[in-house]
């Protein structure tokens, strides 16, 4: 790949669901018809785009539309979550071709876990019926912090024994494929740009509601990773001064007041959930949390109050972030999002609008992800597509 103009043209085609004619492409990207013609020939030769029928009426000859070729390239995505590991094979247009998930193998031997993951990937690709030669690589979404340059996971709180495990290189050795490792929240933002439709364009933050709360950042269609790949660690924004103490030493951080384990504990204390939900560690939290959200959905006042309180606090954190970055949109998603969505989408937009420094200049949309529950794994696969195909200013500098 490597050619900036080529990635710009591919990106324009990818963002137009109905495809684009060469004339429209020239208008959108501002390149000469000759350049458009040469590059679209190269993209056709590489099977990344197809000519998809002719459109147009009136005088002049109908225009041939160029569209992304869904089967032109594939990527494997792995979401390494402390509880469940999810695998997908994604095609070039961001559709899931094959999906599977397993309990994350526990134990402090990362080497054995990586071998298991590699075997599962090989099986998944075989089952998907996809030509392995068209698989561009594997993306892994992991809880942070990570060392992006080294491709390692650095002491993730919920994966004991995983400190500085050379995940990227070990998985590349075990599978023979190109591997990228990124944070789960960043992967989710990349998923939104690649498979999320209109909500993945422009400038937005992706609020990732997982075991922790973090955000992915996209500014002017480019993913922002920061110096070491760890941008978006927002858990310690104080949203409730004097509130619950946090492991960071402050009180009332969005982490210490709004993560699922905390909401479940509040529900047990308030008698909304019974004592069988005391276990606020590991996979049990998901069940207890689902129960809490189901109660709120059915109109239980006390359950609703707990979720509403968290929506107000999360909205305060969101307000700080959107004002720091000046984005168009807040996209919510992640493994714990669907249960929260009803109350959050009622309450967060108004608070964010009120607190927005730019409310007289542009609106700020608050939406749920267009990608769905598997946003981590789809994002992991999208990392590979993004790395290979997206126009990035870094690419321009490297070529300059
Ligand atoms: Zn804190």
Secondary-structure blueprint of this entry?
Layout (H helix, E strand, L loop, with lengths): L3 H11 L5 E2 H8 L3 H13 L3 E7 L7 E6 L5 E7 L3 E8 L4 E8 L6 H19 L6 E8 L3 E2 L4 E2 L13 H9 L3 E5 H12 L8 E6 L3 E7 L2 E3 L29 H5 L1 H10 L14 H14 L3 H25 L3 E5 L3 H19 L9 E4 L6 H15 L3 H7 L1
Parallel strand pairs: 4-7, 7-10, 11-14, 14-15
Antiparallel strand pairs: 1-3, 2-3, 4-5, 5-6, 8-9, 11-12, 12-13
Helix pairs in contact: 1-3, 2-3, 4-5, 6-12, 8-9, 9-10, 10-11
The structure holds zinc ion.
Zinc ion binds next to helix 7.
The largest sheet has its strands arranged as: 6-5-4-7-10
**Poorly predicted runs:** none
Q: In CATH, what is the class of the largest domain?
A: Alpha Beta
Strand residue percentage: 15-25%
Distance between the termini: 15 Å
Bound molecules: zinc ion
CATH topology of the largest domain: Nucleotidyltransferase, domain 5
CATH architecture of the largest domain: 2-Layer Sandwich
The run of helices and strands is: HEHHEEEEEHEEEHEHEEEHHHHEHEHH
Helix fraction by DSSP (H/I, runs of at least 4): 40-55%
Q: Quick one: overall form? A: globular
- The CATH superfamily label of the largest domain reads ATPase, nucleotide binding domain
User: Could you give the count of β-strands?
Assistant: 15
Q: Mind telling me the C-alpha Rg?
A: 22 Å
So how many helices? 13
Number of domains: 3
* Structural classification: alpha/beta
Biggest sheet, in brief?
5 strands, mixed
Mean pLDDT: 91
């Amino acid at each position: 790949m490597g050619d900036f103009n080529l990635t710009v043209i591919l990106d324009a085609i990818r963002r137009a669901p109905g495809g684009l004619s060469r004339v429209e492409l020239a208008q959108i990207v501002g390149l000469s018809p000759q350049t458009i013609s040469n590059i679209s020939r190269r993209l056709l030769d590489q099977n990344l785009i197809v000519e998809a029928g002719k459109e147009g009426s009136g005088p002049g000859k109908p225009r041939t539309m160029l569209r992304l070729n869904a089967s032109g390239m594939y990527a494997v995505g792995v979401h390494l979550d402390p509880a469940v590991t999810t695998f997908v094979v994604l095609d070039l247009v961001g559709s899931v071709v094959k999906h599977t998930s397993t309990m994350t193998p526990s134990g402090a031997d990362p080497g054995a876990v990586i071998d298991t993951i590699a075997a599962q990937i090989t099986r998944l690709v075989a089952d998907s019926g996809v030509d392995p030669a068209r698989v561009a690589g594997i993306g892994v979404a992991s809880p942070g912090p990570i060392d992006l340059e080294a491709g390692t996971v650095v002491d993730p709180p919920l994966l004991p024994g995983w400190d500085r495990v050379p995940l990227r290189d070990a998985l590349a050795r075990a599978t023979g494929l190109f591997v990228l490792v990124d944070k789960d929240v960043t992967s989710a933002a990349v998923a939104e740009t690649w498979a999320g439709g209109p909500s993945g364009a422009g400038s937005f933050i992706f609020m990732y509601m997982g075991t922790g709360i973090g955000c992915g950042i996209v500014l002017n269609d480019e993913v922002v990773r920061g110096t070491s790949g760890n941008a978006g660690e927002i858990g310690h924004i104080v949203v409730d001064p004097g509130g619950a103490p946090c492991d960071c030493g402050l009180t009332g951080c969005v982490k210490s007041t709004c993560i699922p384990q905390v909401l479940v504990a509040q529900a047990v204390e308030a008698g909304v959930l019974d004592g069988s939900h005391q276990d606020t560690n590991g996979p049990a939290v998901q069940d207890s949390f689902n129960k809490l959200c189901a109660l709120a959905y059915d109109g239980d006042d006390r359950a609703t109050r707990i979720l509403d309180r968290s929506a107000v606090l999360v909205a305060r954190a969101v307000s700080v972030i959107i004002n720091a970055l000046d984005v168009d949109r807040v996209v919510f998603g992640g493994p714990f999002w669907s249960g929260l969505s009803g109350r959050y989408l009622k309450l967060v937009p108004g608070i964010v609008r009120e607190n927005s420094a730019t409310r007289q200049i542009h609106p700020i949309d608050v939406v749920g992800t267009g990608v769905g529950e598997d946003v981590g794994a789809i994002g992991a696969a999208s990392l590979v597509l993004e790395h290979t195909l997206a126009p990035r200013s870094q690419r321009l500098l490297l070529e300059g």
